[in-house]
Amino acid sequence: MARKYNWRRVKKHFSYDIAQAAKALNCSVATIRNWTKEGLYCMADQKPFLFDGRDLREFARQKSAAQKWSMPETNAPWNYFLCFRCKGYRKPYLLMADYIPATPVKGRLSSICRTCDGAIMKFCRTDQISKIRTTLDVTHQSGSTTLTDSESS
Predict the structure, then answer these.
(1) How does DSSP classify residue 86?
(2) Which residues are CB-contacts of 22 (< 8 A; sequence separation ≥ 6)?
(3) Which domains does the chain have, with CATH numbers?
(4) C-beta separation of 142 from 117 below 8 A
(5) Which of 9, 41, 118, 141 would disulfide-bridge 85, Cβ 3.0–4.6 Å?
(6) Which positions fall inside the Helix-turn-helix domain (predicted)?
(7) pLDDT tens per residue across span 50-79
(8) Alpha helices in the chain (DSSP H)
C-alpha cells in the first residue's frame, strides 16, 4: 500500500546506508531496496551501499507528492467532496447533499460519490450553505430522528 514518507527527517548533508535510510523514513529495508530498482541512486562502489541525503530526500519527497490528492481547478470548489474509496475529490451524485448540523455554527454535508457510490462528506459552516445551494441541491436534516405515523402507534 502506498504511503507518505516524512522526507524532512532526512538530512541532506549526511550519507545513509540502507538500514539508516529505512529508519529515517520509518519504512522497511525492502522499500529502500525497491527504490534503488526504481531509480534511487546509491553509491555501490563498496559495501555498505550508501545513499546521499539529497538524493534520498528528493526521492522520498517525490514518492510522497505522488500520493497527494489535488483539488480540481474549478470556479465552484464547494461542489467537490473528498471520497476515501476513490481517493480523490468527486462531485456528489445528482448534485444532491444533506446538511446535518452539529452545532449552531457548523455542520456536515454528506452525499453519495458519483463514481463509486460510496459515502462522501465534508464539513462546512452554516453561513456557507447559501453559497453552496447555488450549485447543489441541499436538504437540511435535523439532528434528531423523527418517528413516522406508523412507527409511533
Answers:
(1) T
(2) 28, 29, 31, 32
(3) 11-65 (1.10.10.10), 77-143 (no CATH)
(4) no
(5) 118
(6) 16-63
(7) 999 999 999 999 988 877 667 777 777 778
(8) 18-25, 29-38, 53-65, 129-132, 149-152
Report the alpha-carbon distance of residue 29 to residue 43 in Å, rounded: 16
- Location of C-alpha cell 538500514: 19
Copy the grid coordinates of residue 35. 527504490
At 44, phi and psi to the nearest 5?
-100, 20
What is the sign of the dihedral through the CA atoms of 148, 144, 80 and 7? negative
3-state helix/strand/coil string of 4-43: CCCHHHCCCCCEECHHHHHHHHCCCHHHHHHHHHHCCCCE
Give me 85's grid cell.
Answer: 474509496
Q: Please tell me the pTM assigned to this model.
A: 0.53
